[in-house]
Amino acid sequence: MVAIAAGLWWDYSKPSVLAATITLPIDVGGYLLSGLTLLVSVGGASFWNIVAFLLHHWRATGLPASTVYVQHQACLRNSANATRAIWEALKIHQAWAGKRPDRLAFQTCLVVIPAFLVWACFSTAALFTSSVTNKAYASVVARVQPQNCGFWNYNTTTTEGAIALARMRIADTIQARSYASSFYANTTSLPVRPVFSRSTLPYTIQRSAPCPIPAAERCSLGPDKAFRIESDFLDSHDMLGINARPEDRVTGQISLTCSPVRVKDLERRSPGTAGKDDVVIDFLLGPIRHSSNYTYQYKTAAANNSGIRYHL
Q: From 21, 61, 122, 290, which residue has the greatest number of CB atoms within 10 Å?
């Protein structure tokens, strides 16, 4: 099982300057967006104070000043924000418009245009604070963390343990086949979203592959009638979703060849412990190193009790 990991991480699918990513729960994410909007608003007001100070200092001269000039300087000194400065400058312009003093429009623009640019930039930034989040209808990239990881351990020396192991394997097989039907064969209309980086992996199929074992005469369908499936070259980052730097990524290819084989003469039967109908069948296709001298063991009691005749 996996869970979404909250916190700061680096998405190496993006350029280095944009790789920093933070994942938060939905409620905490709402607080973050509100805080960003407030921060942009405060930043806009503070930035206007700096711009107003620079304009006031740039316009300040020792020459005799007109009344309009003095009023504009007072506007720059006392305006709390850019919108207030625009409003005050427009009122000054309207008050003096009938008397037509020299360069009235130019002096008004020296206040209005910088104030408007500051207001427009920070208003746009406030509107786009929501762009830092992933959209629910779009592809969402998140970092996962392992949860309850490990291996199942069954005591297969007992009938109960063997039955439990067989049931677990068949459940995994059913789950895998269900996923393949949903995303490879398109046999479902449910809008199921996969948890993987890509819902399907590219592959090719060959239905006339050579027998996968050296003793080709044992293949029931013939020496060149095996089923072979081979993946394309799979990139660990783009296809498997392993977030790594470009120099740490790997590419691999997987192939599998299957064919029914004749193994009747390679069976070893012995009585089981669950009664007269219990038979243990060892298939001697080669030993498993450090484990057993048989390849696979089949217990008829487990099959009879669970209804499982075979598993993949």
A: 122
User: Which alpha helices (H) appear in the chain, and where do they start and end?
Assistant: 26-59, 67-78, 82-96, 104-127, 159-183, 300-306
DSSP letters of 7-30?
EEEE-TTS-GGG-EEEE--HHHHH
What is the DSSP track for 34-69? HHHHHHHHHHHHHHHHHHHHHHHHHH--SS---HHH
β-bridge mates for residue 208, sequence order? none
Q: 108-159: per-residue pLDDT in tens?
A: 898 899 999 999 998 888 888 777 777 666 667 788 877 777 778 888 888 8
> What residue type is assigned to position 281 of the chain?
I
| 8 A C-beta contact, residue 300 and residue 278 | yes
Q: Three-state DSSP class for 198? A: coil
pTM for the model = 0.56
Of 299, 3, 305, 303, give the one whose Cα is nearest residue 149: 3
